[in-house]
Structure formats: C-alpha cells, structure tokens
Amino acid sequence: MKEIASWMKETGPHGDIVLGTRCRLARNLAGVPFPGGASRDQLREVMNKVSAVVPKLQKLGGFAFHEMGTMDALERQVLVEEHLVSPSHTENPQHKAVLLSDEANTSIMVNEEDHLRIQVLKPGLQLEQAWQLATEIDDLLEAQLDYAFDLQSGYLTSCPTNAGTALRASLMFHLPALRRVKKVQEVLGTVSKFGLTVRGLYGEGSDIWGNVFQLSNQITLGQSEEETIEHLARFADQILHSERQAREYLLEEDRKLATEDWLYRSYGILRNARTITSQEAMELLSDLKLGVDLGVIPLGDPQCLKQLMVQIRSAHLQRMMGQPLPVQERDRLRASLLRDTLNNKA
Amino acid sequence: MKEIASWMKETGPHGDIVLGTRCRLARNLAGVPFPGGASRDQLREVMNKVSAVVPKLQKLGGFAFHEMGTMDALERQVLVEEHLVSPSHTENPQHKAVLLSDEANTSIMVNEEDHLRIQVLKPGLQLEQAWQLATEIDDLLEAQLDYAFDLQSGYLTSCPTNAGTALRASLMFHLPALRRVKKVQEVLGTVSKFGLTVRGLYGEGSDIWGNVFQLSNQITLGQSEEETIEHLARFADQILHSERQAREYLLEEDRKLATEDWLYRSYGILRNARTITSQEAMELLSDLKLGVDLGVIPLGDPQCLKQLMVQIRSAHLQRMMGQPLPVQERDRLRASLLRDTLNNKA
C-alpha cells in the first residue's frame, strides 16, 4: 500500500470531467447481527469467515486482508483519502478489516455498517465495467458465504435505505466550469427528484472541495441493478453535456482572456506559494486541471495533476515524509511538493 | 521625452524605502496677475518671458521648452505619470508650458497655479541635493525675471498657503511593511501636528497605490528653507526606522514563512496574470519590491522593478505601443509586459 491507488492517478474515459466511478455493494451474513448490534465474538467470526475466502478471489488478481486495528492512524487515513475505506471505518478499528486488491482498485470493507461492503473503483466514467467487476466479486463471495437475503427486501442491510440491490453507484465529477458560471445548482439541484443524490469529495456530509461532486443513486429498492446503472449513466450524460457547454462558454471570444487570466493566476500561486492548506491546494489544482483540459495551459505531464490531487492530502503527505507532522509543517511541505512537481513538469 | 525620467528608474540613497525626493518652488512674476486671473495675452506674455531665459539655464545642462497645447493627450499624461507636471497642468493646456531638463529630473511648469513652479526630482532620499539644485535654478531665473516678493509674505503665491518660502519638499516613501503590520496610521497619523502632510502617489486627493506615501511640509511661512528641509529630514529618519523595524518583524522566525508566502504569491501572479489593472499591478510590484529588498526573492535585475512601476501606467503603456488603447487592451498589454520582463529577469 505504498503506491497511490491506480484509479486515483490514472485517467479514464471522459477523464476531463469524470475523475472516477465507484460501485459499492452492501452484503451481510445470514444469522449474524449487523455490525452495530453484534458482539465482539460475532464481529471476529465475520472477519474469520471473510479472511478464509480470500484465496477464492485470486482468479480476479491478488487480494490481501488487512485488519484495521493493526494499521497505524496514518495508514488508515491514507485509505480514506483514496476512498478505499469510509471515514467511519477508521473509527474503533478493532474488529474491522479491509480486503484490498493489489492495484487497490477494489476494496472490501469488513464490519463497517454492513458485514461486507464491496467497492470497485475505476478511473473516468466506467459504470458498466465497475459494476461488472463488483458483481463478479460478489458472485465469488456468495458461493462461499451465506448472505442475508429475502425475496421481498432483496439483500438485507443495516440501514433500510440500502436494502434491495444494496448497490450504490457513484460518479466523481469535476465541474469547475459549471461552478464558475454559477450553474451547479441549476444542473445538480434537481437530482433528488430523479432518485439521485450529490455529495462532496468524501461522501455524505463532506464539503465540496476542488469542484468535485459525487453523484450517486439513492434508490436501491424496486429497481434492478441494470436500471440503476442505466439511469445514472443517462444523467451523467446530461452533466457532461452541461459542463462541456460551460467550458465552451468560458472560451468564447469576449471572455477567453478573463478565463486564461483566472486559470494562469491559480497556476502562478501553485508554483509560488510557500504554505498552503489542502483545501486551497485542491481549489487551485481544480483550476489548473481545467486549464490543461481546455488547452489553455500546456503541461508537460498532465497526468501529474490527478496524482497531485491525492498527494497533497494530509495523510499522503505525512506518509511521504515518513511521519506524522503538525499542520503548519504539512502546509509548508504541500507548497513545496506543488512547486517542485509543477516547476519540473511545466 | 521618449525615455523614462531618470529619477524614476534609478535607485538613490535609502532606495529600499524612499523612491524619490522632490523640491518645488512656486514663483510669480511681479505686475502680472496669477494665472487664474490673468488674460490670455498676459499668460502668453509669461510664456514668452520664460522661454526667453531658457538659454541662461544651460550651465545646469540642457533644457527644452514645451508648450502643453502642442502635445497630444498621451504625451501630457506621460509627464503626469513621471510627476513632471501636475494633473491640473494638463487641463486647458493652452497657454501652459513646461521646461524640462534633458534627463527630465527637473521641470518648470509655466502658468500652472503660479507662473512658475520649479521642480527638482531625485531618486532616493536626497533632500539637500534636490533643494540645492532648485535654488540654483531659482537664482538663475531670478537674475532674469522680476519675481513678486514682499518682505512680510516672502514669495507671493496664488494660494496663500504657499507664500513665504513657497518651498514644498516631498519624499515618496514605499512603506509595504508598515502597511502589512497595520502601523501606517500610528507612524503617519500625527504628521499634521508637525506641520507635515501625507498624500498618495499623485499628490493631493490621490489614493494610496502600491504603498507609496508622499510626505511633504505644509508650512512655508515663518520658517526658513533650511529649517523646512531639516525638519522633514528628521521626520523621514523616524519613518525609515519604523519601516525597517516592521521589515525585521516580518522576517522573525515565526512569521518568516507567512511573509515569504505572501510575497511569492504576488510574484507568481505578476508572472502569470493575463490581464491586470494598473492599481493591482502597483500593489503586486510593491510586494515584489519588498521581497527583493528583504532578500526573500532573488531577481536578476532588481533595477527593472522601479522602471516597471512607471512602465505599467496607462500613458506609458500606450506610448510604448505607439497609440491610445482601450482599457481592456491596456490591461492585457500590462500583464504581458510584466510577464515578459519578470520571466526574463528572474
């Protein structure tokens, strides 16, 4: 786990606007209380059962079983920053675990809110592919484990709003142009009417940082997985279209200069700041990514941008330095990393 | 007049804090009404008398007589930006003139508020030198012209507040550190009690731009020229001391990083902006000058900074392009000039 998860550093289809795709399936074992109500012994039993099936997953590539309790706080936080575990999965880490694929594009949280949360992450817009892989993993696990399922409610989940398919498909959109032209609300404000929901970078309750918006399905009952995926894909198309329109607008004759000015100023600050918070760094990197995607700012290695968006986060920064660091020192090192990377890649 | 006045591009004593020194003497011809009350013929007569004595000034270097009415608006504005004529001297330019030394460090406005306003400008803190030269010019003129003078009021002037010595000595201070630590008011707020006055970059009624403050004597009656100069010099010493203290404070261990961050961000914007107003450019150049003077930002040719502070002004920019330009175009060219100069000199 010393590398950054590949889905976070690679660029996928529609990578100028969609940073990544995630499909998550929630599953529980029959006859065992949900984690919130289970005893220590029962949680341990779930861990043992899951760790025993790891070898069965090898046909999909290497997987490793990590107990959350044996990691240090920094390692756990790195997983959160790569979206491989949820923030809540790092709290009370005893009797929690995560199964990670070698490339860290797949993670299975054990004893989070549900016994199992299978997550597949892909760069760019890859709903079908992510869902397919999640399903394959699910099938392999289901062949070994006895899932809690009933015909009326589908897969049973700790929180009833997940029951049914227990599928949550999410797209991580980068929408700097829509925000610039103040149309985010117009485009995303109505999603709940369509059974979808929008959140910030780190999911529920998290702020919007760096113009990254997560769009997910909200409905899991009375809708097939295929329908969920298809519905989200259709909506994603509309968002892509709106963001592209906003980008074209920003490059129109009479506002191109203002757009270039805005983006280059951000680039200038990124290459000159001596101390910077992760939030400001995300905002400026968002501007720079837009500049590169619009062809306004040439960057020798545009790939470094998506990578920087992860490297500048606090846990990654501290892992890079090999130790926990006070906030001020992190802000200083973050600025230094940005300068070094961008002045070399420019 | 195609070059920038040498006092504006050179650095003088205490040039890290004092951009320039100006000594101005107001004089009027006896028996002719002040310009505000004079007829066209009388104004013309003053012009003729002054232009006739130009050869007598040659022992101090070359001088040329320019009628304001024969210049185009851009040329007149360039003179204002170099502080060689006052803004009001460009209004109704008929029957107004200016005598300029070859290096444009000396200017004599004819028919401004008074018949003659002799101005000597020097880079840095050079009160004695500027006053000496002004006096030499004054002596040469007085030998040829009959000045309005009486024993009680001294030199008579259009505005009674100038009567007496009719000397106004000014220092142009660059006080970015005092402003940063919010002590400008503390240091300059009491000057009127000491018979001094503070103004912005372009004198009376002008805003403070780029942390440039003009300090001048207010009293001209009942005080000798020597006393005026000495008094101002003493006060200047105090300001220099306060600004240097503030600069040391900004470099103290626990705030050095924040100072570097602030100054480098400004430098980054200067080297990246695609459009910029003259006011913002002045503010950022002020930051950059502080960065260079503090030894925080190395600049291959620090001299270019003082020059840029003039070149970015609207009339200079338009003269450089050889034509009047709309505001938007000026803002674009200003950004381009800053990038070209600073990216080459860095």
Describe the structure.
The structure is a homodimer of 346-residue chains. Chain A is α+β, with helices and mostly antiparallel strands and 346 residues long. Chain A folds into two domains: 6-245, Creatine Kinase, Chain A, domain 2 (2-Layer Sandwich), CATH 3.30.590.10; 256-345. Helix content of chain A is 42%, strand content 16%. An eight-stranded antiparallel β-sheet of chain A has the order 2-3-4-5-1-8-10-9. In chain A, strand 6 (149-150) and strand 7 (154-155) form a beta hairpin. The two termini of chain A are 29 Å apart. The model of chain A has no long low-confidence stretch (mean pLDDT 92). The A-B interface holds A 257-258, 260-261, 264-265, 267-276, 328, 332, 335 and B 257-258, 260-261, 264-265, 267-276, 328, 332, 335.
Looking at how many chains there are and whether they match, the oligomeric state comes to homodimer
Shape of chain A: globular
* Text of the CATH class of the largest domain in chain A: Alpha Beta
Calculate the terminal CA-CA distance of chain A, rounded to whole Å. Answer: 29 Å
Return the structural class of chain A.
Answer: alpha+beta
Number of strands of chain A: 10
The largest inter-chain interface, given as chain pair and residues per side, is: A-B, 19 and 19 residues
Global mean pLDDT of chain A: 92
Q: Order of helices and strands of chain A, N to C?
A: HEHEHEEEHEEEHHEEHHHHHH
- Spatially, the strands of the biggest sheet of chain A line up as 2-3-4-5-1-8-10-9
CATH topology of the largest domain in chain A: Creatine Kinase, Chain A, domain 2
Q: pLDDT below 50 for ≥5 consecutive residues: which ranges of chain A?
A: none
Helical residues, percent of chain A: 40-55%
Count of individual helical segments of chain A: 12
What is the rounded Rg of chain A?
Answer: 21 Å
